[in-house]
Structure formats: C-alpha cells, structure tokens
Design goal:
The complex is a heterodimer.
Chain A (H helix, E strand, L loop, with lengths): L3 H11 L4 E4 L4 E3 H16 L7 E5 L4 H12 L3 E4 L6 H11 L3 E4 L4 H7 L3 E4 H4 L6 H9 L6 E7 L7 E6 H14 L7 E4 L7 H12 L2 E4 L8 H10 L4 E5 H9 L2 H4 L7 E5 L5 H10 L4 E6 L9 E4 L14 E2 L3 E6 L5 E2 L5 E8 L5 E2 L3 H7 E3 L9 E11 L5 E6 L3 E4 L2 E4 H9 L4 E9 L4 E8 L3 H8 L11 E4 L13 H13 L1
Helix pairs in contact in A: 1-9, 2-3, 2-7, 8-9, 11-13
Chain B lengths: L1 H11 L19 H15 L16 H12 L1
The chains are: A alpha/beta, B mainly alpha.
Chain lengths: ~500, ~80
C-alpha cells in the first residue's frame, strides 16, 4: 500500500458499487472510478510521459476526479487550474507546469484556446477510448511513492505563483492518520466545499478514496445561494464538514443551518485562518453535539500538521490553540537564533519534519532550499524540515497558539497572499511609481499606498488582468513620495502613521 | 436610507458605481465573500436579521433592491 492507487483499488474491492463521488448532476461508484480512470490514463499516456504534471482546466465535478485518477494511472501528477483566475495568471501557471497538454471539458474548450496554444485534450473524448492493460502496467511499475501526486499554487513574493509539489507518500502518510484520528468510515458523507486547487479538498477526496466514505461535491455557486446549500447538506445526509473558516462563516451569516438543520453532521473541522469565536458559538448552538476541530498547517506539509479538538468554551477574542501534532510528524518552534522554544509565553517559528514534508516548489530550487532545509538542531544526519514562517506562541497552559507571520505574507479571505506580489503587480501599472501594501488585520482589508499619477479605477482595471479578486486592494492611499527608512527601504511604519492620521481627519 | 446602503457597499469595494449598477450579483461584481460581508454589515447598520429565504440574487442586484429588502424586514 504505497500509492493512492493501491488505496483506491483496495476500497474498490471492498465497496465496488458504493457511490464514491457525487455532484448535483452525476454520481460515480468506486469500480466505475477505477474503470474510467484507467481509460483516461491509457488515453493520456499517448500524449505525456510519466512524471508530467497535467493541468486540468475545468470546474470541480465527478468527471474532474476521474481525470485526476486518470492522470495518476498514466504515471503522472495533476494540477487543478482555477477558472476564475485572470488569463495572465493561468498562462504563468501553465508555463511553470510545462505539460505539453491541458485537459478541459467540452464547455471550456473555447475559453482555454484563448489562453494557451498548448494541445487541448477534452475529457469527454478521453473517456471514449479503451483501456490498455500493458501500457498502464508499465506506467504503474515505474511509479514510486516519492513521485508527485499533485501541484497546488500559492502566492509568491517574486510576483509569480509558486507550485507546491506533493507526492504520494505525503498524502498516504497524512490521510491514513487523518481518517484514523477522526474515525472517518465508509458510512460517512463528506460535503466538499473547497475548490480543487485548494489543499483543503485533498482531505475530502482522499478520505473518501481511503475509507469508502462518499464525497458530495458542492457547486461553487451554492456559496451565494444559501437555500440551495441548505437543501444540499440536508438532502444528502452529510456527516462531516472539512471546510475553510470563511465558508463556515457563510453558513452562520446566511443562517443556512437555521433554515434546515442537517442533523447528521457529527464533525465540523476548519482551517485556513483563525476561527472567529462568535461564528463558532452560532454553529455550536445549532449543532451542539458535533465534534469541532481546529486544523492547522500549510500546503507545504500536506494539509495539516496539528489539530485541536475543542474541549472548552471560548470567549470572544480568545485565541484558540492549534493543538497537538498528527502522529508521524515532528512539530517544533525555533527562535531567531535557531534555538528551540519550549517555555510558556515563548514565541518561535513553527517548523515541521517527517513524511509529510512536500517535495518543494516546482522549478524553483532557490526558494525551495530557503524554506525546505536541514534541521538546525540536528548536526548528526540529514533531516529535512519545512520552515512555515508562522510565528507561534506558547500560552500559559503550554498550548501552541497562532501569533503572526515573520514576513509579508498574510491570510486574507482564506487565501495565502504575499503582499510583495501585489506590490509588484501595482508597480507594473502605467502611472504607478512605487507601491507598498499593508494589511489591516482589524477589519481584514488590503491597504495599498501608491505614488504616481494613475487613477484608482485604471489601477484596478489593470490589476484584474493579472491578479485574482482576493488580491485586489480594498483601500488606496496616494502619497506624494514613499517614506524611506535608514536602510533605504520603504518605511512601513511611517506609512501606517500617515494612514492613521488621515483617517482621523 | 439609500446613502447608508451605498456607504455599506463602499466599505466592501469602493470602486463600483453603485448608483447605476443593476446586476451586482448577476455580473459577479459581488462575490460570495462580499455578499457575506454585506449581510453582516446590513445586520449591524440597520439591525435587521436577513433570513436565508431572503438571500437571493434578485434581492441583492441593485441598491434599490437592497433598500427594498431592508425596508420590508424592518416592517
């Protein structure tokens, strides 16, 4: 049991006819998923060598899952491309992936043709072929669990997105433990909220594949239609939610659970940002018996490295602990001198080692070596760790609590964003001289300071060509000249003082 | 009340011409996350609890529609 295919086939033997994945219009059983995955894999093998990272340009659905599994049967990895990203950003991702082909569905062929001149394969056509056992066996024999399974993109400080490469071993290590700790079984139903280009979805997809649980894929547009979302959760007997914090806040703000109470929900797990206690309490009022879990961890260590099962009440403003490590991963804090921090009230950068540490950033050895590096506490043998950049504090009870970032990365609307990436995009706009973004943590807004002559409507129109919606600044402030500190860098403190003064006027 | 609604909307994105726009939802000018912020902000500004049944594309497409919704809920 080394690759995710071994797990899929084991589950396929145990529950061949049970529904594996479902969306609003279709359903696929485990045996069908294997069969169709092998057909897609055979077809893909004609176009790409093993080890290629195949991009998928389509909405999330049961067919997309079949495509992913097909790529794996072809000895490849997959990468989901978000349809809502600007064309320039998608082009940059495809350039980084370097796959000779892009897979899409019939609906999106026209759109994709405008973005890329790579060969476009239509999933409906791939599904029309036949399985070739020999080809598949050859690809399978060449596959090791240290080979990539998927690539997920995150914001990069150099102005282009970074692709995190995650291998089979990473996912096998995490999902075996995740499904064990939270007792996910074949009778569970996971409601998939996260888009497939977010690694929160990895927990849904592989919890299903590893255990035989059913995964119900919620259409993205249901997150502006609370009644449809409420009906979906209720009608499909959902038992487990592994969601982004912002999506859970949607449930409470839109009063979805008050409209129809999905009584079967037994576990609600959240990650991505700090859960607001106010929203948590509203959830607990409606579903008091469910288990609530705070999950913590970045994509680079495969989903999560720690979990905290809520065991007490929190007051507004309390910081919720990030909990204890999942088995088989080592989690520790390092201070600025690379000494381990263990005492209460201490603060350090959270570092992780173990089988969960991803392969690094695609085609980016410099950035990879910077944060995937030797454990400075170990001078006896090679021990690769990932430095998260998250500063964690140990509270008076000895629990780890999220404190802040050590760089300019922020979490905004559930997305990891390098403020520097926005600065670079802003400075590329004609009429913008210098730009510096800051994050207002209190009200969750991106504040852009700019110097130059460009009008803000023009700036936003330009930015929308290169940046996704959630990276567009909310507030602008034009300054005559950027304040510079004694190191010759933009003085962020002076800018914030300027903003505060301006606001009080 | 119109001005107050526009003020609330400006807090979310201040580069939209809310006076003239009649397809805030249809044209995806407001995303799911924006809508969420808007509901919470209306709740705070006008002390109205907007029930799930009232959250439809039509009720949020324009300033006039939002105004009508708030008035209806205020009774």
């Amino acid at each position: 049991m080394k690759t995710v295919l071994d797990y899929l086939e084991k589950t396929g033997k145990e529950y061949p006819d049970k529904a594996a994945f479902a969306d609003v219009t279709s359903e696929i059983s485990f045996s069908e998923l294997i069969q169709e995955g092998r057909i897609v894999g055979t077809a893909l093998a004609k176009y790409v060598a093993g080890g290629t990272v195949v991009p998928f340009y389509m909405d999330k659905s049961t067919v997309t899952i079949t495509g992913f599994i097909g790529a794996v049967y072809a000895g490849c990895a997959y990468s989901q491309i978000n349809l809502r990203h600007p064309a320039a950003r998608i082009a940059a991702m495809l350039e980084l992936l370097q796959s000779p082909v892009v897979v899409t569905d019939r609906e999106h062929v026209g759109e994709l043709e405008k973005i890329t001149d790579r060969e476009i394969l239509v999933i409906e056509d791939l599904l029309g072929g036949k399985e070739d056992t020999e080809v598949l066996a050859a690809r399978r024999n060449a596959l090791a669990d240290t080979d990539p399974l998927y690539v997920n993109f995150t914001s990069g400080s150099t102005g282009t997105p970074k692709g995190v490469v995650v291998c089979h071993k990473n996912v096998v290590d995490f999902i075996s433990e995740f499904t064990e700790v939270f007792s996910i079984r074949e009778n569970d139903v996971l409601a998939n909220q996260a888009p497939f280009d977010f690694d929160v979805s990895v927990k849904d997809i592989y919890s299903g594949i590893f255990t035989g649980a059913r995964v119900e894929i919620i259409p993205t547009e249901y997150f502006v239609q609370p009644l449809k979302l409420g009906d979906f959760l209720y009608d499909r007997d959902v038992t487990v939610l592994v969601w982004a914090v912002s999506a859970l806040c949607f449930l409470t703000t839109m009063r979805v659970l008050a409209y129809k109470k999905p009584e079967h929900i037994r576990a609600i797990m959240f990650s991505g940002e700090v859960m607001p206690i106010k929203h948590l309490k509203k959830l607990q009022e409606i579903l008091p018996d469910a288990m609530y879990v705070n999950l913590y961890g970045p994509t680079e260590i495969t989903c999560n490295c720690t979990y905290y099962i809520l065991d007490r009440e929190f007051a507004d403003g309390d910081a919720m602990p990030i909990g204890i490590p999942f088995r088989n991963r080592k989690v520790f804090l390092l201070d600025e001198q690379d000494k381990e921090v263990t005492e209460p009230m201490g603060v350090g950068e959270l570092c992780v080692s173990g089988s969960c540490v991803a392969l690094g950033y695609l085609r980016n050895p410099d950035k990879t070596r910077e944060v995937f590096c030797q454990n400075p506490l170990n001078d006896r043998w090679d021990e690769r760790i990932y430095r998260t950049g998250d500063l964690i504090r140990i509270n008076e009870n000895g629990e780890m609590v999220y404190f802040s970032r050590k760089d300019f990365q922020i979490k905004h609307l559930g997305h990891r964003i390098e403020l520097t990436e926005i600065d670079i995009a802003l400075q590329a706009v004609p009429g913008v001289d210098r730009a510096c973004c800051q994050y207002l943590h209190k009200n969750g807004k991106i504040l852009a300071f700019i110097s130059g002559t460009a009008a803000r409507e023009e700036i936003n129109a330009e930015l929308r060509k290169t940046l996704p919606d959630y990276m567009i600044p909310n507030i602008y402030m034009t300054v005559e000249r950027m304040p510079i500190n004694k190191n010759g860098k933009i003085d962020r403190q002076a800018l914030m003082t300027l903003y505060e003064t301006e606001k009080r006027k | 009340m119109k001005e107050r609604v526009i003020a609330v909307l400006n807090e979310i994105h201040d580069d939209v011409d809310y006076e003239s726009c009649e397809a805030l939802m249809d044209d995806q000018i407001l995303s799911s996350l924006d809508l969420m912020q808007l509901i919470a902000a209306l709740d705070e500004e006008f002390s109205v609890e907007i029930p799930a049944e009232e959250i439809s594309v039509d009720n949020f497409n324009s300033v006039a529609a939002i105004e009508a919704l708030v008035k209806r809920l205020q009774g």
